[in-house]
Amino acid sequence: MRKDTIVIREIETKDNPKIAKAVRSVLIEMGVPKVGTAYEDVALDCMTETYNEPKKAYFVVERGDEIIGGAGISPLENYEGNVCELQKMYFMPEARGKGLGSEMMSTCLNFAKQAGFDHCYLETLPYMEDARKLYRKVGFKSLEKPMGNTGHYSCTVWMLKDL
Question: Which pTM value belongs to this model?
Answer without folding.
Answer: 0.91
